[in-house]
């Protein structure tokens, strides 16, 4: 792999382009929006990538034809994806994987537009920002080949990502579904007046979130069981956990709940510069990643 096509250069596309450039690849990018090239070059330079190996064209087919791998980042609309993938499938070499960054759309639906080679369409869903967060969820559609999945997994690993392979497609993939489960209860707790938005954020960021940055839910649960591990946890906390599940909320996104959430965030972050907060988040994430790399 030497050249990646980045199709769509919004926030995700800029981050992907910078990541590929930082890993020594050439990038050919495409976006039809006015001023897209200027914003892209400014964005990758701000992240710290050298834009010298970046080329730009408004023609998505031309970008795909020059690439060894295609990473698409267009809006989450089926009509847009279909129009775009018809072009990409018609232009890219037959051995080139077409990966969508879609956070929730199913690859089977996306691949319907790839009449020539639907078997090479996958979802390669990153977490924002892709140049920083290692996870990529690689999702097959009904007609995706094992060769395409293997190629996508190998490619993402080669550029420093931590890809995971889904065995089946489902809306939201894995990580967004896990986030949605947490958000559901967080929103319910606010709606029921159990806690403030700020206190719920503190409960995660100063509690289990610290452990989750190191190990996943199953490994953390295993450690909490002492010598007996997760078997001990399930034996002793399984029934209470089931009771908690039955008590979890089922919030409805009413205008009243939306106002509670927005007002709560505004109160929590009053006087905080969003750009400074994002820089703080990214700095801490980098420190955590560095610590994980240095630890045995």
TrEMBL record:
Domain 3-hydroxyacyl-CoA dehydrogenase C-terminal: 172-240
Gene Ontology MF terms: NAD+ binding; oxidoreductase activity, acting on the CH-OH group of donors, NAD or NADP as acceptor
InterPro entries: 3-OHacyl-CoA_DH_NAD-bd (IPR006176), 3HC_DH_C (IPR006108), 6-PGluconate_DH-like_C_sf (IPR008927), 6PGD_dom2 (IPR013328), NAD(P)-bd_dom_sf (IPR036291)
Pathway note: Lipid metabolism; butanoate metabolism
Top-rank taxon, per record: Bacteria
Similarity remark: Belongs to the 3-hydroxyacyl-CoA dehydrogenase family.
Annotated SUPFAM superfamilies: 6-phosphogluconate dehydrogenase C-terminal domain-like, NAD(P)-binding Rossmann-fold domains
Pfam family, one: 3HCDH_N
Domain 3-hydroxyacyl-CoA dehydrogenase NAD binding: 3-167
The protein's name in its UniProt record: 3-hydroxyacyl-CoA dehydrogenase
Organism this protein belongs to: Pseudonocardia petroleophila
BP GO terms, sorted: fatty acid metabolic process
Alphabetical keyword list: Oxidoreductase
